[in-house]
Amino acid sequence: MHVPDGFFDATTSIGTGVASAGAIAVGLRRSADELSDRLAPMAGLVAAFIFALQLLNFPVASGTSGHLLGGALAAVLVGPWVGLVCVSIVLLVQALVFADGGLTAYGLNVILVAIVPAFVGYGVYRLVRALLPANRRAVVAGSAVGAFVSVPVAAAVFAVLFAVGGSIDLEFSSVLTAMVGTHLLIGIGEAAITAAIVSAVVTTRPDLVHGARDLAVDLELRTGTGATVLEAS
Amino acid sequence: MAGAHASSLLVPGDSRLHRLRPQCKIAAAVAFIFIVVATPREQFWAFGAYVAGLVLITGISGLPPRLVLRRLTVDLPFLAFALFLPFFAGGEQVGDGWWSLSIDGLWASWNIVAKGTLGVATSVLLTGTTSLADLIRGMERLHAPAAFTAITTFMVRYAEVITGEMQRMKVARESRGHDPRWLWQIRAIAHTAGTLFVRSYERGERVHLAMLSRGFDGAMPRMVEGGAPRSDWTTAAILPATALAVSLAAWMVHT
Q: How far, in Å, CA of A58 to CA of A73, rounded?
């Protein structure tokens, strides 16, 4: 569920739209550097995965369920730039096809759901990784903390933008408290689900996790006379 | 939500609205919603005029009115949110002793309901008369970056495949008695999601190899289609131009 039309005034809508377009343009260029001619199919399939993931219901408490926002997860799995581009495209399709999120609020939704989680989530992930020993457990812990922090930060960014260009004059501190308060709880769910998914992927295919590339082990050729390290792929 | 069938929102038809080039429709829809958002909320008649315009267009499009109304219900969660505002917003209050509503909150509530609903209605008309492939082609004509439209094309094409795969894993889980109720029981679903990621990623690699074996050289072929005829642009401009006139008039009355 995303911000619809009418929440923010036209100036803020245009401003956030321009900012998001710039970020997506940089993201596309950085993604193209990384994936070269694989960009369209790879990013397209990752975007389709994120789209499907948001339809997947996770149990929360006593039979109620919720779904993942996925910004921080995408950043850890495929890197912040490709993740940003993929989540932005999912948002566009949701706005165009399901009218989920207004067209004038697209820029705002990109900032809150794609840009902030990609950079805050990934930044915190890197920080945690730097503090912990280099192993798979640190990858899982880092993505949990990154996902957790990214949700209330996005809520705080919403509160700030709402104070600047919201369509109603609510007291900034009360919006901030309410938004960050509820999103701390949502962040716990986001952290648990993100960690569980990253843990599942890193166990089966650690080489696919962008944020765990430094853990990749070189292939070894083992023969009767000893082991030779093959050239890293 | 008909998640998987992303392309099935199109209601086939041959109205003037269906035949309009997608780039003209997208530009007109976005311009219209921006004008609506920028209209002063105190001028109720202006919003009445916008509704009249959209009703007229619904008539021209030949979309069944009941279907349009049903699709408008995606808006409902926001209406619920908007209805809470008058109870919590500060400022001058109306009411007596034990109940009071904020006047600011009432205005904000109306503002979100009116503009949000008009925005959704516009999207419903756009997607009801334009296929997803045409929407992407329209974005391309409106100079969206080629990489962006290419990724979107792949995403839309494989969204059904990936959601279908997820659905099958769900059936597999449930047929083995899986019925989690608490957050600490998410392991199996997380494994589903993890497997889904690995399978999507590997599918992407296979798609790329298949493309290479068919002569892909790094650039997606551009759709060969000329620009829109001038008559399409003038037709599409009627709605935003009228709305602009209404909005300007509303501003003049307002100040």
A: 15
